[in-house]
Amino acid sequence: MIRWLVVGAGGAGRAHAAALREVRGAALAGIVAPEGASGVDLPSGTPVFPDLARALAESGADAVVIATPHDTHLALGLAVLAAGLPLLLEKPVALGSAEARELAGCAAARGVRAGVVLNQRATAHARWIREQVHEGRLQVSNVAFSASLARLRGWHADPRRAGGGVLRTVGIHYVDLLRWWLGEPAQVTAVMAGEPAEDRFAVGMRFPGGALGSVQVCATAERSAGPVRCVIDGAGARLEMLGHRIVSLEGLEAPPAEPVGGPALAFGPGHWIVLDEATRALERGAAFPVPLAEALPTLELIERLYAAARGQDTRPG
Question: CB neighbours of 119 closer than 8 A, spacing ≥ 6?
Fold first, then answer.
């Protein structure tokens, strides 16, 4: 039995705590919630700790997942690694790539497994798309993500805590999927608007081979207009995805079924899959499926997009 400590009782922390109830061979060792965990559906008797130090000393955890505001990830992550416990960090790993490199370097120096929660990558349909692209069955010409979402609130709207606005907190998922599917972009463009944290942005990328990718997110509504939409056009093929599910498909064989929901899958099946695969990796003594170092190129790309939006990207291409 792998006992997981969840650090954070916000939306992501609640998702992890709920998902752990569905993972075979896993248990919730406790939750770190300085302000209490009244809004979290916890198994009876689950300890709630006021801080990480006490949780590390008393929980008996085998591994830790950190799901707190971005500006806390570095200090909390270093403390977990110093304790020698395997670590999963919610995206983005830290405020920026420099902090992420520090965490990855610490994990490597101590020989501790560390990984990143990229739950959009974990879904069956996102993996199927990557397989189609990499095996040459889907020759992509254009990928377009778009969404109209509710306003950023709380710490998500504070760039000092989040490291930015909607690009850092939401758009990073879709920028990461483009990079995962198509490789490193040869050229980027970006525009953004909103203060103090951007609530609108548009990204364009050109990839080796000529494929184009775009991400447009507007987070100015009182409530979200629906799941993120993704349309992929290719040579003789076209598909549309809403959220994590493919809803229309032309020119390709049918994808595998995507699991759909109960309460543990509030953000789709990704968190459950990440925790299930991480638990299996710990049982085998293997590395996490998405190691911490894999977060670095995506964070560097996010920083490049912010620079482009500010007219500061001087990279060739």
Answer: 267, 268, 270, 271, 273, 274
When the candidates are 1.10.260.40, 3.40.50.10490, 1.10.1610.10, 3.30.360.10, the CATH number that belongs to 124-252 is 3.30.360.10
Give 124's pLDDT tier (boundaries 50, 70, 90). very high
Token output for 77: 């992550």
What separation in angstroms does the CA of 259 have from each of 49, 125, 241, 256? Answer: 33, 10, 14, 9
Model confidence pTM above 0.90: yes
d(CA 22, CA 279): 12
61 Cβ neighbours under 8 A, 6+ residues apart? 3, 4, 5, 29, 30, 55, 85
CATH topology of domain 2-119+271-292: Rossmann fold (3.40.50)
Distances (CA, A) of 201 to 167, 243, 298: 7, 19, 17
Give 17-50 pLDDT, tens digit per residue: 989 988 999 999 999 998 887 778 788 889 999 9
Mean pLDDT of 262-288: 85
**For 92-114, what is each residue's pLDDT tens digit?**
999 999 999 999 999 999 999 99
* Model pLDDT, residue 266: 61
Cα-based angle 148, 152, 156 (whole degrees, multiple of 5): 135
- Could you tell me if 103 and 74 are in contact, meaning their C-beta atoms sit under 8 angstroms apart? yes
Angle at 268 between CA 11 and CA 283, to 5 degrees: 85
139-148, 172-181, 220-229: least confidently modelled range: 220-229
What pLDDT shows up at residue 116? Answer: 97
Residue 3: what are its φ and ψ, rounded to 5°?
-95, 115
Domain residue spans of the chain = 2-119+271-292, 124-252
Helices (H), the chain: 11-20, 52-58, 73-82, 97-110, 124-134, 159-162, 166, 172-182, 270-284, 295-309
Tell me what the mean pLDDT of segment 269-278 comes to: 92
